[in-house]
Amino acid sequence: MTLFDHLPLDFHKLPEETILHIVSELQLLNLAEEKARKTECAAASYARDLTRPRANAKYKDLLTFCQLSKKCRRIGQEVLVRHPDLTEGGKAATQVLRLLRLLLFDNQGLATKVRELKLDLTVDWRDKETVASMLEQNPTLWGEIVKRAALVHPALVDLWEAEWDEAAREEIPEPRGHEAVDEEIPEPGDEEPRMGRFEGTKAVQALILHTTNLEKLDIADSQFQSKSLRDDVSLVLFVAWELKALKTLVLRSRLGSSDLISAFLEHPEVILLPRLKTLDLRIQEWVGHSSLVPLLVQNAGAEPWKVESLILRGWVGPEALALLLRRFEALKSLKIVVDVHERFVPMEMDEGEFALQFDMLWEAMLAVEHTLESFEFVVKRRRTKYPILFPPVLNRMEKLKVFKISGAVLFRRPFNPVSGLVEEGVVAVDSFLPPNLEHFEYAPDPISLGQIVDLCWVTAIIPRPAAGAMREITACFKQLLQILHQARPSIQSIVIPWSWYSPTDFVEIEAQLRQHGVKLLRKSKKEEMEQIRKAYEDKYLAWRPDLMEQLALYGGVEDNYHLSGELQKRDRNRDAEWEERESRVDAQGLGAELVKLRLEERDKGTQ
């Protein structure tokens, strides 16, 4: 049964606006379900037993719905183009051109319906032939693209014509990891130019120019090195200035944090768009952040940015971060997600220096202390032995109302007067929590809290002094939990780890806090299991049965469903091994009996 089977039987009699709303909501549920299944299949160690979802699985039900009638086709097409993901299947440029063809020739009215675009600037080496054949079959497509682009952004056409000749002469190297393809390299004078990054980027630019009602733009460059990344992002941001309705900008890359930030520093018009509220930078490995400092200093006098929400997924360094935050004059929400993993530590510093960088990070946040209302700090992985300092500057942020800490975070005792966090109990609240706090989440994963112990890595992950400090800090929070409403009358909700209290104690404390208008919540075991899997990585869990069994004992079968199959298989293997062992014992016993009988028969024969 699909999600669209929940439609009423006579739904076709409803007004189109009502059907459009229903189908849109069902498709959003379908996308969320497919994303969860894809994440589960990609991340879990048990994924070898699962069938990976197809690239177009998220649109399967919607495509079926479009075949019911002409009315459903019109509605389905509009829903389809609202949130298109053009990064699936490894053919990003092909999908961009197909969507352009739909918007230019098949149904021009759909261009204003596009609300979100997820694009990949990488042109796969297998994708260029498909793009070339599409342009051969429809030779007017590119001409129409250039014609429409000239009406919106005239300067872009001259730029394209200048770069087209240059791109036609460039040789595109074969990608790493694939065998070289034997093909004739055309000479510069050949009529047919080689398809590559140039065509992919220009197609993306054209698509952006044709979807001026975009509210969210998500750009990824997953394979190119930093130089290409900077060029590609700069070219895309050059035309993104036309998106007057843009509210969210997401930039993704595996490498080149400095080039990514430099790209939009060179085109600050995008950050100054009137409706832009959220900037999300997602970089897997942050390198070269020191080169950002002179660039940020050089642009310090530029017009301030009005973005209200900033998400940094990676590490940019405290000095560069402080300069970056000073560019925001109205930043209300800051979320920092980092990988504290030994392979993510910059090569120029050891782990101790990297840990001290976090101490400086909190000082960098003072650049937005007068505007910040929400701060979330998430540690995705921890495989280094150096803990970090609990943020000591939050008590200076009077507007900060939401404070969240989660993941594989590991704190150490502060070295300043904030040491009262452990010794002074209630008095310490004024030292480390914002004065007007309303929502507080303190939810380290069970590894940091010591609920799950890896005997092979215990000294590398959580050394004994750090583990003791973490236990003391956690115990302090548990003591402050019941009287936090007195120290912070503004508090409205608190989120804690699952393992803090038994069900009976939790119900009792939750009732006490509810009398004071405070809602007490705790994270589910399923969420904590996901955090553990990210912290340890599933490939590591696959060959550690002791950890698997600890997780099962902690989470239970229902909440730990993704590990129950693996554990059941191990139980079956144990049963099979035990049966084999018993059969060997029985065989040995039976063999002894047969030998005894033969000896007795021989003795009788000799007599």
From TrEMBL:
Extract the ranges annotated as region (Disordered): 173-195
* Superkingdom of origin organism: Eukaryota
Show the ranges annotated as biased composition (Acidic residues). Answer: 181-190
Annotated protein name in UniProt: Uncharacterized protein
Species this chain originates from: Amniculicola lignicola CBS 123094
